[in-house]
Amino acid sequence: MNDLMRKKDLATVVAQATPLKRTMRTFDLTMLGIGAIIGTGIFVLTGKGALTAGPALSVSFLLAAICCGFAGLCYAEFASMAPVSGSAYSYAYLAFGELLAFVIGWDLILEYALQAATVSAGWSGYFTKLLQGFGINLPVELTAAYGTTPGVTTYFNLPGFVIVLVITWILSTGINQTKRMNDIMVMIKIAIIVLFIVCTVWYVNPAHWKPFSPYGWYTFQPGSTQPMGILPAASIVFFSFIGFDAVSSSAEETVNPNRTLPRGILYSLAVSTVLYIAMTLIMTGIVHYPDFAKFINAPVAGVILATGLNWLAVIVNIGALVGMTTVMLVQLYGQSRICYAMSRDGLFPPLFGEVHKKYLTPFKGTWFFGIATALAGGFININVLFEMVNIGTLSAFIIVSAGILWMRKTQPDAHRGFKAPGVPFTPLIAIVFCFVLIAGLNWETWVRFLIWSGIGIAIYFVYSRKHSALAKNKTSAKAATQTQQ
């Protein structure tokens, strides 16, 4: 059983050579993080969040940001210690051993795939509406997965399928193309959000903020099975912040990762939090929170309708498309890099670790999961799996935060380009916040999560345990010792 806890050596990991090209700098990483964070949260989840918490949704966003902030400090320290691909998977491998690392990596693959597929469905809706504005109507059967829209017969999400394949092509042809595309789209997205804020802030009616917290921190309304209040809303909008951890997946393509990775993680969280809070205060100030039920799937559009600034609707629609495109790009990027790291460690087949000679990217692995994600978004109604993304990410946050506590104790003298302040309190607070947010998820999510983790454990014992690079190195070393004797 000891082999289940075998760990990587920190010095070996740091010295491990990589064939990936290092071109990412602090600005690129910050844009990568903002690209992953700002998208679905503003353009979709603010509607459901406002109905759950009222104007206090801004507090819910702040709580989710605090959780991510404390976890982000732990990620930043790990990234400065071990600037390698794999994010939480690689950190768990260093701190707790192979089995737990595999389970976390397996869960992160699902997290990234489900989020990208979920966002592709929302992207398809905005894209279809934009085309309709130009008099172009796609066959309704090809605008959403089967059974997605009640009362409407749909079979396949064609726009979502195509955009995922386009993003996969961009990712597979090189990190330079990826970062340029992401940087441009993120700057466009931020500019459109700032334009929305500047144009709509004059329509805020402070009376709509009263009562500010109609449901308190946590309560059940009569006849409802879903909790209401600030904490349940924080569990919902936590989805908005998922993605900053993908920044650490770029470690092997980052210039001076000891400094740039922590900065990219923390800067992107800070900028995104400010924009989220500003947006939610303005939106709940323009539209009274119960009225968000009328346009729950397009809350920003509803707010614009209330102001009468119809010209702004087209611009914001484009911003929504750009915003969700960057989210999918970063999620698919992070997914391919985790698979690359797991393949290099022997836990996944070699296919996923092969680096293209020309593009210097994990080409085959990127296309494999890109096509799988495109098909999932095209055919499957994944709304029921939405919260699995949250529970997978929160589990990873808990492991990374606990890993900082363990590494500070077992390897206190290891080089750290960045040290999380306030340890042990910082990781402990992150862990507590994560468990609080997990408590806001329903029991069906737990069951699905446990089933997926169980499938991963089965794959580990059938394939990964035997093909592990650490296992092979140990066997080779033992054979060499016996030969010498």
From TrEMBL:
<dbReference type="Pfam" id="PF13520">
    <property type="entry name" value="AA_permease_2"/>
</dbReference>
<feature type="transmembrane region" description="Helical">
    <location>
        <begin position="366"/>
        <end position="385"/>
    </location>
</feature>
<feature type="transmembrane region" description="Helical">
    <location>
        <begin position="155"/>
        <end position="172"/>
    </location>
</feature>
<keyword id="KW-0812">Transmembrane</keyword>
<feature type="transmembrane region" description="Helical">
    <location>
        <begin position="224"/>
        <end position="244"/>
    </location>
</feature>
<feature type="transmembrane region" description="Helical">
    <location>
        <begin position="57"/>
        <end position="76"/>
    </location>
</feature>
<feature type="transmembrane region" description="Helical">
    <location>
        <begin position="309"/>
        <end position="334"/>
    </location>
</feature>
<dbReference type="GO" id="GO:0015171">
    <property type="term" value="F:amino acid transmembrane transporter activity"/>
</dbReference>
<keyword id="KW-0472">Membrane</keyword>
<keyword id="KW-0813">Transport</keyword>
<dbReference type="GO" id="GO:0016020">
    <property type="term" value="C:membrane"/>
</dbReference>
<feature type="transmembrane region" description="Helical">
    <location>
        <begin position="88"/>
        <end position="109"/>
    </location>
</feature>
<feature type="transmembrane region" description="Helical">
    <location>
        <begin position="265"/>
        <end position="289"/>
    </location>
</feature>
<feature type="transmembrane region" description="Helical">
    <location>
        <begin position="391"/>
        <end position="408"/>
    </location>
</feature>
<feature type="transmembrane region" description="Helical">
    <location>
        <begin position="184"/>
        <end position="204"/>
    </location>
</feature>
<keyword id="KW-1133">Transmembrane helix</keyword>
<feature type="transmembrane region" description="Helical">
    <location>
        <begin position="29"/>
        <end position="51"/>
    </location>
</feature>
<feature type="transmembrane region" description="Helical">
    <location>
        <begin position="420"/>
        <end position="440"/>
    </location>
</feature>
<feature type="transmembrane region" description="Helical">
    <location>
        <begin position="446"/>
        <end position="463"/>
    </location>
</feature>
<dbReference type="InterPro" id="IPR002293">
    <property type="entry name" value="AA/rel_permease1"/>
</dbReference>
<protein>
    <submittedName>
        <fullName>Amino acid permease</fullName>
    </submittedName>
</protein>
